[in-house]
Write a structure and sequence with these properties.
The complex is a heterodimer.
Chain A lengths: L2 E5 L10 H9 L3 E2 L5 E5 L19 E5 L8 H7 L5 E6 L5 E2 L1
Antiparallel strand pairs in A: 1-5, 3-4, 5-6
Chain B lengths: L6 E7 L4 E7 L8 H11 L6 E4 L13 E7 L2 E7 L3 H7 L4 E5 L6 E6 L2 E5 L14 E7 L4 E4 L9 H8 L2 E7 L3 E2 L4 H12 L29 E2 L3 H6 L6 H4 L2 H11 L5 H19 L6
Parallel strand pairs in B: 1-6, 7-11
Antiparallel strand pairs in B: 1-2, 3-4, 3-6, 4-5, 5-13, 7-8, 9-10, 9-11
Helix pairs in contact in B: 1-8, 4-7
Classes of the chains: A alpha+beta, B alpha+beta.
Chain lengths: 99, 289
């Protein structure tokens, strides 16, 4: 059964982007352009306007995965995350999922 | 591939609202970070400079996660270090240094995308600038009266705040969208994982806090930046808590070598002396006296 990378614990993400770097390394490059995993700081990334940029200093992250990442070595991607954000799951033939 | 022969320096003139990229071959021997920063400070002293710098390993190796800022604070040369995503975005913008010169007539937001610069009003929504996921935002938080990177990481002691606000520079948004190829990707991965495995050499506890890009520690210390410290560590612009890892010249040499830099062991060992000489030159500069 095909396996795929799942973001099981997004709340654990600390924004280190080691997963992004691992994915890019597997594609033989270093950088962010064309990355199959993207890490965003806070979901709305709203900063307000003017000099009154006063808001809570709480930084959280959201992660997006391009499904083509599953053609890479996803075990390495899962294992490099220091906080265990990702799991690997198996896809059943009828489209259902098993963990 | 990295440019092993020159440092890519983006000069931003706030007075004239002009910018330009120069490939500075003379900076190579200064390695990076505080070394190149001090040299650029000395070379541009009459233009009221603030120099942001990364080192040759930023963006490429774990724990090389800080950005160096060098400035003249009313006669005292200061080197401070900020965490977050800033250093990786400067690296992926294809830059080694950003030199802010002069003073803007009005408060300004500077948007940098690779080597291009747009001067913008401070009332623009910063969230509309740059590319999400590939940008870093340094903005002035009025309530806390400090600059903040990524809404979380701040420089220490409010030295940078005083300097940048005196230049009317209120916000910086930088996007890096360049990629690098490594000549020997297998050896690079091997070395990358070897460095990453040395978390036991870090002098800070692991945590679940927001982490600097390229660092797995999630420590509680990096929220506030660093000031002064080990010259080699700060030439590489590695985290001060990774000093044990990068004070091993063999490790540092291997990391530089795999990226294509042709530094020798002697070059690395001589960096400290070269920086001390630059500091003396700065201290004796009549423009500062």
């Amino acid at each position: 059964m095909p396996k795929y990378l799942k973001i099981s614990f997004p709340q654990k993400c600390i924004g280190c982007e080691l997963c992004v770097a691992e994915t890019q390394r597997q594609l033989k490059k270093v950088g962010l352009e064309g990355a199959l995993i993207r890490v965003f700081k806070q979901s709305n990334e709203s900063f307000g306007i003017g000099t009154d940029r006063n808001f809570e200093e709480e930084l959280t992250f959201t992660i997006q995965i391009d499904p083509t990442v599953n053609k890479l070595n996803i075990q390495k991607i899962r294992d490099i995350c220091p906080t265990g954000v990702f799991t690997i799951q198996e896809e059943e033939e009828d489209g259902g999922l098993v963990s | 591939m990295v440019d092993s022969l020159a440092k890519h320096v983006l000069y931003i003139d706030l007075s004239r609202k002009e910018f330009g990229l120069k490939h500075e071959t003379g900076l190579k021997k200064y390695l990076g970070g505080v070394g190149t920063g001090l040299r650029l400070l000395a070379d541009n002293l009459e233009r009221y400079p603030v120099v942001f710098s990364v080192g040759p390993l930023n963006g490429f190796f774990p724990f090389c996660s800080k950005t160096s800022v060098v400035l003249d604070d009313n006669g005292v040369i200061e080197d401070i270090y900020i965490g977050g995503s800033l250093s990786s975005r400067i690296r992926f913008a294809g830059l080694d240094n950003i030199v802010f010169l002069g003073k803007s007539k009005t408060p300004v937001t500077v948007e940098i995308h690779n080597e291009q610069v747009i001067f913008r009003d401070i009332n623009i929504d910063l969230g509309s600038l740059g590319l999400p996921g590939k940008r870093s935002v340094l903005y002035f938080n009025k309530e806390r009266e400090l600059f903040t990177v990524d809404r979380y990481f701040s420089p220490p002691e409010r030295i940078l705040e005083n300097k940048l606000l005196s230049k009317n520079l209120v916000n910086i948004v930088i996007t890096g969208s360049k990629t690098y190829e490594i000549k020997d990707p297998e050896k690079y991965e091997e070395l990358y994982k070897k460095v990453l495995a040395q978390t036991n050499q870090m002098t800070v506890e692991k945590g679940s806090n927001p982490s600097c890009v390229g660092c797995p520690m999630g420590c509680s210390k990096s929220k506030i930046g660093e000031i002064g410290g080990n010259i080699l560590t700060h030439s590489l612009v590695a985290c001060q808590y990774a000093e044990k890892i990068f004070s091993d010249v063999g490790v540092t040499f291997s990391c530089l070598n795999i990226l294509g830099y042709d530094y020798t062991h002697e070059d690395i060992e001589n960096t400290t002396k070269l920086i001390e000489l630059t500091m003396k030159e700065l201290e004796q500069d009549p423009q500062r006296l």
